[in-house]
Amino acid sequence: MIPDMITFITLLERMGVSSNRFEFIVPEEVHKFYTWYEECLLCIENNDWKGLIDKRNEFEVFKQINVKFQYQYRDFIDYVIERFVYKNLDKALHYIKKALLYTITDIDNIVTNRALLSIFEGHLLANYYDLLYTIQVDDDITKKLYSFYKYYSHRLKDDLIKGKIIPRIALILLTHDKSMLSRKKRLKIEHETLKILIKNYTIREVPEILKHLIKDEMSYGLSKIRNFQRNALLTVFDKYGVCPEFRVELQRFERKKHLLLSDMLKLRRIELGLTLEEVAGDICSVSTCARAEKGKVTPSKTTLALLKERLKLRALYYSSEIETEDYDTLMLNSECRKLISLRMCDEAIIKCKELSEKLDITISINRQILGLYELSKSLDETDRINTLWNLLLYTDIDINHKLIFSREELELLSCIAREKAKVNNKDGILFLEKLLEKEHKQRGTYYFRTAIISRDLIKMLKDNKEYDKSNELANKVIHRMLKENESGLLLDMLDYISTIKEETDKKKEAGEICKNMFYIAELYEVYDDAKSIKEYYTNNFNKNEVWY
């Protein structure tokens, strides 16, 4: 049996390592299970309780996933149904405790035992304490939860995990505490939580934490600033039909980064120009190979290892953006990526130099990522497109025949499209549209793989005055960001939509979007962008605007 992704992710996160730093390759059953859970969450989000009950009744146990984790997810759904549909709090408590006890033997002594939880276990714990508060407000609950908050805030090293657990615990504390927490303690929690949310570019919990900050802030001026920022976010939420209120039962996290094993086997075979018979060879029967490509069967570990070699796959179960055994280096790589995406060049140069000293550059994927970062920081436009193509030569397949791309390759190709667009905008558009078409052949593809491509395509469409297509795609990306609780490209999308409004004689709407962009940029501490937005608004919409 191949490694169980859910078990592996749970163990990673319990060690304080975010699974978001990896891309997983999973069999059909794991994909089906996650799809089932995501569909349950969609029903919860939309208060579609009949749909949720129907989905719950579709639950089935899969052989390739640890059964206790499957029951844990199932019992969480039962808890939601009992609490929010049937309003039976006793049964809800039974199910949420049952879900926790599958993997946590001592719920009330997590801090004493110095335990670390997976993100899903943290989600269950948040619901457990929230339900206890609902049954009876008790200072003992606040003491336990506050103790957990302090312990986890200092114990967790990985911000990607901290950002998924701490804000939920903090919001439950702030919402239910009546008297135990002083105003000073509340403000400390609020500021720390907002800092975590901003650093991780999450968005869904931000309006709620700002609401608490506005209420508790001692300075009227600071409270006023936060109010403007919150209203700007609420405008976006309202536009896209998203509820800004904190709902403990909603797990507003991006989907796990996974691709399907069946897709990888089939597309890689086609890339190499091999027949099923040539791939199967002396490894397995042709029918086994064919069924594996359709997701009907998962070959044994031994067979998969042999297929990996024959198909020259980089990874079989999971991979990271770089090749390293040092987790701190993985975190450093993520920091470099973020700094470059935010155009924070001075900081990026320092961190990228540090990364280059830690990576083994004899490994092609490491040379590729460092080359991409170096090019992103460089202002030299000379022969840029050939430099980009040369970075792709680290792969062993003609890029025109390639069907499976790493995230780095997708970003490199998007950079090439931008260079093409400088000469002929239409060439850049066609290049990206074909790339997206290839990427969507994989059923497991996810938002983060195509986010940069979508951003660049939207800009090119706008520049080419294909306003309807650009606007439609930008709105889809914002919908997806809000669903995945991610705001990294929000300012870009709002900028493109505002420009389209302005260029199609809808100046008032464009101005409103531009003004909201300023407050959102300040909230997320992108101060250079905020300054540019403010100047543009003043010069083009209202030079007498009073900002705060």
| Biggest sheet, spatial arrangement of strands | 2-1-3
Instruction: Give the overall pLDDT as a whole number.
Output: 90
What overall geometry do the principal axes of the alpha carbons give?
Answer: globular
The CATH homologous superfamily name of the domain at 5-239 equals: Tetratricopeptide repeat domain
User: Main beta sheet: strand number and arrangement?
Assistant: 3 strands, mixed
The amount of beta strand, in percent, is under 5%
Please report the number of helical segments.
Answer: 26
CATH architectural label of the domain at 5-239: Alpha Horseshoe
Radius of gyration: 25 Å
**CATH topology of the domain at 5-239, which one?**
Serine Threonine Protein Phosphatase 5, Tetratricopeptide repeat
Q: Span between N and C termini?
A: 60 Å
CATH class of the domain at 5-239: Mainly Alpha
Question: Notable features of this structure?
Answer:
globular; 548 residues; 434 Repressor (Amino-terminal Domain); 26 helices; Serine Threonine Protein Phosphatase 5, Tetratricopeptide repeat; mainly alpha; three-stranded mixed β-sheet
